[in-house]
Design a protein that fits this description.
Beta-Lactamase; 5-stranded antiparallel β-sheet; 513 residues
Length: 513
């Protein structure tokens, strides 16, 4: 058994350690990928902002007179292109109908950069491949405004991302041996650039192929594990390029990222398993001896939970960790017994006033009725309902209402004997049960009711002011022949009659037999 336990423990440790390392290494790689994606995103964002800023500044410097002089405008644009090769694939100006103002023809008015600039904002277009060179080109456009701020023309420029070195930088930025970088335009459903050159300017996969990519297309930014379109599981991190709406994906196959885990597993199995097995056998034997008292304690505790023996403290065998654990269990058991007693008390008492609740009232009333029947005595039930409690509650708040209920309970308890019962059965409803009256019983009960009325009528000292309440009482007597339900119903009915008579009084119902 010890050998089996050692073997199982070693195997469990092996798999747990492997799982921990995989999880920890995955988190570490994800953090690295996130940092890389953020860095590349900032680099791409700076590239785009630099060109958009140049285009916006140039738009403010276009002489308005040249917009009507095609040849001079073309010369002016060519001169700026030579001074700053930011837009090596050309600059042009068009009117709002798409007609080039330098006399070189028309442009596509359906392009995103034309529509965005026409609406008055600097806009990136859809990346495309230039004919002949196979370079990646990125069109941009900004509005040219008149002195009143209205858009009167558009300045368009096309950047050569391949010639600028941006894509070469991305394609050389391989992550590990097989990882890489992707630049994605979600609006165009296009891979703008990729470490794998063949993926540049190709459509993104359809929905359902790569679940993390689907989330990124709808706005998710962060990291996670996914299976790409080639069926390879990889760890990917996504970061936004704010100026374009694009996002960057830094990805690394899980097999490469977690290769150290496989090497660790191989090392453990070949180099450490025999030694570990021997040590575990010895440890297992020692643990069997050390844990014998714990096993006995566990067996005894198990029998307690099944109800085979009473709850009782466990025997402390040794003053060691197991002894400390047994002592702690005994303290916990003592608290459990204390809580059980408290729960039993709460099950039969009102939590606000501490008075018996309806359940305990029924039980005590049954006992008092049985005793009255045996001893030929009368039992009185007084049903009390506070007058003016709702007004107090609405005026001073629930905290004041709770204080009034507790004070009423205290005053009623001060009037009764130890053998009597005062219970709270509703919001502001109390029941007082008394027995063993001196003759005549009716006079004693009515005197007790008047004492209750006088006690409740005393002003309550609240935080803001003193407040007085009243109480209406319904009374019924029985010689023990009635049921608790009948007594409470009769007393309740008499109480309502007392309220109808003007409140602050009592009504004695006919005796129930």
């Amino acid at each position: 058994m010890g050998l089996l336990m050692a073997t199982v423990g070693t195997a469990a440790s092996y798999f747990q350690l492997s799982r921990f390392l995989r999880k920890d290494l995955t988190a570490s790689v994800a953090a690295q990928q996130t940092a890389l994606a953020d860095y590349v995103a900032r680099d791409v964002d700076n590239y785009l902002r630099e060109r958009l800023t140049f285009l916006e500044r140039l738009a403010t410097r276009v002489p308005p007179a040249l917009l009507a002089q095609p040849l001079q405008l073309r010369a002016w644009l060519e001169e700026r292109s030579e001074l700053s090769p930011t837009f090596s694939l050309g600059l042009t100006v068009s009117d709002l109908a798409g007609e080039r103002l330098d006399g070189s023809g028309r442009i596509g008015v359906d392009s995103s950069e034309f529509k965005g600039a026409s609406a008055g904002r600097a806009t990136l277009g859809r990346p495309l491949t230039t004919p002949g060179t196979r370079h990646s080109a990125l069109p941009m456009a900004v509005p040219i405004r008149n002195p009143e701020g209205e858009v009167m023309a558009l300045l368009l420029g096309t950047a050569d991302m391949s010639a600028d070195g941006l894509l070469d930088h991305l394609q050389s930025g391989r992550v590990g041996k097989t990882g890489g970088i992707l630049v994605v335009s979600p609006e165009d459903h296009l891979f703008v650039a990729s470490t794998e050159a063949a993926m540049s300017l190709t459509p993104t996969p359809p929905v359902g192929v790569n679940l993390l990519h689907d989330r990124a297309m709808t706005g998710f930014r962060g990291s996670g594990k996914t299976i790409n379109a080639q069926g390879i599981e990889e760890i990917s991190a996504i970061a936004s390029v704010p100026s374009s709406g694009w996002f960057i994906v830094a990805r690394l196959p899980v097999a490469e990222a977690l290769a150290p885990v496989a090497r660790m597993q191989h090392f453990i199995l070949q180099q450490r398993a025999p030694a570990v097995a021997t040590v575990l056998v010895l440890i297992g034997l020692a643990m069997a001896w050390l844990l014998r008292p714990l096993m006995r304690a566990a067996h005894q505790a198990d029998r307690m939970t099944r109800g085979e023996i009473e709850l009782a403290p466990l025997r402390v065998v040794r003053n060691d960790e197991i002894g400390h654990l047994t002592t702690a269990f005994n303290r916990l058991l003592a608290k459990l017994l204390q809580h059980q007693a408290e729960l039993r008390r709460l099950a039969h008492h009102d939590t606000l006033t501490g008075l018996p609740n309806r359940k305990l009232l029924d039980d005590r009333l049954q006992q008092m009725l049985a005793r009255a029947k045996r001893e030929a005595n009368l039992v009185a039930v007084l049903y009390l309902d506070l007058d003016g409690f709702k007004r107090l509650n609405d005026t001073f708040g629930h905290e004041a209402g709770d204080k009034a209920l507790r004070e009423t309970a205290r005053r009623l308890m001060s009037l009764v004997r130890h053998s009597d019962t005062v219970a709270r059965i509703g919001g502001d409803e109390f029941v007082l049960v008394a027995a063993n009256f001196s003759d005549p019983a009716e006079h004693a009960v009515l005197a007790l009711a008047q004492q209750c009325i006088d006690a409740v009528a005393l002003p309550l000292q609240l935080r803001h002011a003193d407040m007085a309440m009243g109480v209406s009482i319904g009374i019924v007597l029985t010689d023990g022949g009635a049921t608790p339900e009948d007594l409470l119903a009769a007393a309740d009915k008499a109480m309502y009659q007392a309220k109808q008579n003007g409140r602050g009084g009592y009504v004695l119902a006919p005796t129930l037999r």
